[in-house]
């Protein structure tokens, strides 16, 4: 796990705009950074796609537009190079192939994905200009020219070979493990977005808590603990039937509770409602699950996505142009911030109240029974029967000292010693009763001794706080609605539509929060009922001789499940706090103006608070540059406590960053993640151009990022050069060449300043 | 089993919390197994593999388990 992982090389054959065979060898960190330079549209991001396609058969960059649209450069290109497929004779085959060499510890892996394409007759259409355009179609996610056929095995294949330190040659891993699983072990797909960093992903990173949760849970492997526990729960819940009618009935009941928890119908299929989900995309899920965890997850996802949409609507409202609107927009922004804060307060207060009702409410209902139980426990304690652990300690101390309290000897051969030993053995398995004693103590201390205080602290005060917070929120919300009406009136149709949309989304979030509370409370009740049935089942199984094995398994799984929960809870808090503190430390180093923010917190539910000087949470309203820097800080922070040493490939690290922060990136990046292999995909604007001046930083030097980096670290350059003979968007070819930094001084040709040129 | 697949942090925490050697090994193996499963893994396979591990580390001996 702690082995350093680095990419050694990337070889492309006829992939998108890369004609023929082309190769990039990457430097390890002690040899410096690898910098791949290319202008927009020359194929830089397709290198990131090539790595993704080879490892995971996925091309995240530029995916999404349909085949008939040629807006996006990446998707308008077929996966096979146009020149290659045009030159291929009809009835013959052409291959697209990507080969990535990766080193993990002492072992080198070669990962190769090949796509064989048989060419028939290419289908084209005539454009208004008279040019012929090759038509494309999608085949299992790969974009292929029409008139071509995707071949199966052995022409299309995925092969992983490896060579360990003691091996003389590479061997195919398929006999030991499926190649997909092999890659999963080297660089898991779920984590790819945290080391193959795409500019768009970096920018939108903080809009939802999903990226934070996945990053922390998956990179630190917390998901394995919760995953293993889920498997255990499913094992525990289906004890074999057929022991007795009682256990059969209880098992049937348990299955119902499980089905409720996992939103399944009587036949075990997923159970859905007909309530429609919030949809932004055609591929978004259509309906909500009926019950349990899946339903809560659906609702949380929708709340996240609606919040993202609301952020973009707010931005649009702030960008509206209309006379006399400035003052309104200023009020709008201020009220929006205040409202968010109040909403958090009243949601927190509501959650506390609800939590207390669910967790502590039953205590009130069972007060008489608890009092009665404690009387019985106290009586047992008075008689010396409890706590059992003291009796065990007492027996052990007698045996250790080899002397009884009456001063009779208890040496190994003494007859009396046997009595004490038997007494000690008779206590085995009875220490469970001590839990009742401990619980009784807690109930007395926190509940019965001051019942009025218990009710006040857990119900009266939280309810009061909740209703106060809600009143404040409602008052501010009315004020906010007034401002929105004024904006809608002043800004015409566009403003009215935006405000209406915002209003309906806010209503929807409110409704979803109510659904979430209800689903959580239903799930909690379901689990509590299941717990009771589990206890009854354990009793019933115990009295049935045939069921001893099932009971044995059930007991072990219960114990393992509890231990996993304990490990998960402790680790989650430790890791979350580590990542939080390191992100904040890294961010302050990367920012040009760190005093703009005062604190950074990741809450237990992974919501993030980045407070500015006025105590407003700015995390959803960061500029593109601030968001990108915070993501870099977070990704760096993930490496420390989680121990996962992945390489980083960053597309456009300073693409949307202002002058002062670009300067900071240039100064800080060489010290960033000191042992990580780092590859940068850059354009001239962010790398070789002089840093733009900033009125707030009049003394900022205009030294380009490339020169700032070069002062501190060795740089290996590659230049992506577009073939000038093929300028058509459908036929552009690029070549990857070794490059170097060079200063050009030819203002007449518009070439002045630093640039990366082919060697 | 390849314990190397599990992070040092998790292993350290397991050592800290779990004292019984069999329980410790069982938990580690369960995590390694879970790491290899994906969405396509059938639940029956998971159940069988988990049960085999349980039987290996905590075998049922009639009359001697409680």
Write down the overall mean pLDDT of chain A: 83
Amount of helix of chain B: 55-70%
Sheet-strand content of chain A, in percent, reads: 15-25%
Task: Please report the total strand number of chain B as a whole number.
Answer: 0
Provide a count of the helices of chain B. 3
In short:
The complex is a heterodimer of chains A (759) and B (66). By secondary structure, chain A is α+β, with helices and mostly antiparallel strands.
List the helices and strands and how they pair.
The complex is a heterodimer of chains A (759) and B (66).
Chain A (H helix, E strand, L loop, with lengths): L4 E11 L2 E8 L7 E5 L6 H13 L16 H4 L5 H6 L5 E12 L2 E13 L4 E3 L5 E3 L1 E4 L2 E4 L2 E3 L6 E7 L7 E2 L6 H8 L2 H7 E2 L1 H6 L5 H10 L2 H15 L8 H18 L9 E5 L10 E3 L2 H27 L6 H41 L1 H16 L5 H14 L13 H12 L5 H17 L2 H92 L5 H43 L6 E6 L5 E5 L11 H19 L5 E4 L7 H10 L9 E5 L1 H4 L17 H8 L2 E8 L11 E13 L4 E8 L1
Parallel strand pairs in A: 3-19, 3-20, 13-18, 18-19
Antiparallel strand pairs in A: 1-2, 1-4, 4-5, 5-10, 5-11, 6-7, 8-9, 11-12, 14-15, 16-17, 20-21, 21-22
Helix pairs in contact in A: 8-17, 9-16, 10-16, 11-16, 12-15, 13-14, 17-18, 19-21
Chain B lengths: L7 H10 L3 H16 L6 H15 L9
Q: Can you offer a commentary on this structure?
A:
The complex is a heterodimer of chains A (759) and B (66). Chain A is an alpha+beta fold and 759 residues long. Chain A has 3 domains: 5-31 and 41-191, Rossmann fold, CATH 3.40.50; 288-522, no CATH class; 574-758, P-loop containing nucleotide triphosphate hydrolases (Rossmann fold, 3-Layer(aba) Sandwich), CATH 3.40.50. Chain A has 21 helices and 22 strands. In chain A, the strands form 6 sheets. In chain A, strands 1, 2, 4, 5, 10, 11 and 12 form a 7-stranded antiparallel β-sheet that branches. In chain A, helix 17 crosses helix 18 (624-642) and helix 19 runs parallel beside helix 21 (705-712). Chain A is globular. With 66 residues, chain B is mainly alpha-helical. Chain B contains 3 helices and no strands. Chain B has helices spanning 8-17, 21-36, 43-57. In chain B, helix 2 (21-36) runs antiparallel to helix 3. Chain B is flat and about 30 Å long. Chain A binds chain B through residues 1-3, 181, 184-185, 220-221, 224-225, 227-228, 231-232, 234-235, 429, 548-549, 552-553, 556-557, 559-560, 563-564, 566-567, 570-571, 574-575, 641-644, and chain B through 4-10, 13-14, 17-18, 23, 26-27, 30-31, 33-38, 43, 46-47, 50-51, 54, 58, 60, 62, 65-66.
